[in-house]
Amino acid sequence: MKQSLRTLIEAHNEKARGPLQSDYAHLGEQLARRGVDIDAVRQRVAAFGLAIPSWGVGTGGTRFARFPGAGEPRHVFDKIQDCAVVHQLTGATPSVSLHIPWDKCSDWSELRQTAHAQGLSFDAINSNTFSDQPGQAHSYKFGSLSHTDAATRAQAVEHNVECIEIGRLLGSKALTVWVGDGSNFPGQSHFRRAFERYLDSSRQIYAELPGDWRMFLEHKIAEPAFYSTVIQDWGSSFLAASTLGPKAQCLVDLGHHAPNVNIEMIVSRLIGAGKLAGFHFNDSKYGDDDLDAGSVSPYRLFLVFNELVAAAHEQVNGFDPAYMLDQSHNVTDPIESLMSSAVQVQRSYAQALLVDRGALDAAQEANDALAATQLLQRAFQTDVDPILQRVRVDAGRAVDPVVAYRASAYRQRMAQDRPAILSSGGGIV
Ligand SMILES: [Mn+2]
């Protein structure tokens, strides 16, 4: 399979080589006139990678229904196989973010070796105390780390510690914690006490982190709790991360904010405070829609990257965000969505690299609002496809990943190799 896909990619790229050379040269000339070295941009894009969430390769769903696709992964080894296809075709996704218990397996060292053989490593590991597992002693119906019952909190802490242990075996360096804790009715929960209980539990988890690990706290405004959530916004997340210590940082999931919130400014605040853990990229129209990254608001994604590129440019101390996708693919082939989303994230990064930082600084200092915003628009409106395509072709990846993927008939083969099962672990956080 691996070899045949490589052969297919080579044939696919061969046809595109001539036009790409011409497009790249033309864009290079245009950028040179703007004082931008296209090869320097290309090299930085080539060094950029983001993690695929293991749950993203399965078909997602909503509260109402899930419509399974053909050839879905049945277990974590199938998921690694699908993630490898995404990386082989795009070259943009060298790591996988696992979720426990959905990805539990009997041999972690075999899993690690299987992933490494495919060129994949393991990014942050995700715990789950937002749903009950069969045989679990205490229910999370009314919360986990902030539950009123001490035994339930202890069970949730223990699960996170187990996730750290699994992550160590896989080479992960971070634990991502999102809790569904909160309330559905005014008066149901004592806000301050619930937050204190969350902090107390989180301290116990924090104490178990290896020295070179980080703890990513993911906030979310609502769902499944629809009146209040314990870690509802970046303020609560920042407060918790600051209380816990330097290894705790705030993870920004683009879909976890109120409509129209200025996410790029939140990102800049967290960067300034040394508390930006990283991202769960996706897009939304109304709420936590988990749509494909950049599919609705590509300018917002660009503006987030504008902050990130500025921080790197200004060499902000300790700036080292983790990049992950977190989406629900309800009506598309998950592999196709993951590939196009990874490319979309790369695109935003490449566009942000085109911003003339010196000119922007000068416009800001001079309070020239129009010039400043035009500098951003100019970068965003540049078609950077030739750069992205060149990065892929140079690395032996497909010039057009979706076209090559469809030609490979991978999904059709998986539909035969992987008999459908009634339910596969899945969900969106
Ligand atoms: Mn998320």
From TrEMBL:
Matching InterPro entries: L-rhamnose_isomerase, L_rhamnose_iso, Xyl_isomerase-like_sf
Keyword tags: Isomerase, Manganese, Metal-binding
Keyword DNA damage annotated: no
Gene Ontology molecular function, alphabetical: isomerase activity
Record flagged with keyword Oxidoreductase: no
Name this protein carries in UniProt: L-rhamnose catabolism isomerase
Encoding gene, per UniProt annotation: rhaI
